[in-house]
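Sat 14:20. Reprocessing the chain from the morning session after the first attempt stalled halfway. Input below, unchanged.
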Amino acid sequence: MLGLDAVELARIQFALNMAITHEGQGRPNTLWWKRVDLLVIIWRTSVLVSYTVVPLLHLLMNAAAGMKSH
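Finished this time. Tokens:
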């Protein structure tokens, strides 16, 4: 699934659980690197999605509109 391994998925689930359990209690007492780690995971996921969606859009444009690059 999008190139994410089990460790990254576990980190995402942990971060989401932390956000849910600390809701309404102010800022959670988590380490700064855990918050940065979550941001890096989100960024990597968005890059991986971009790498999969862009070629599909190119194929769609080539097939539907006859658009060719070079």
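Residues 6-65 form one domain.
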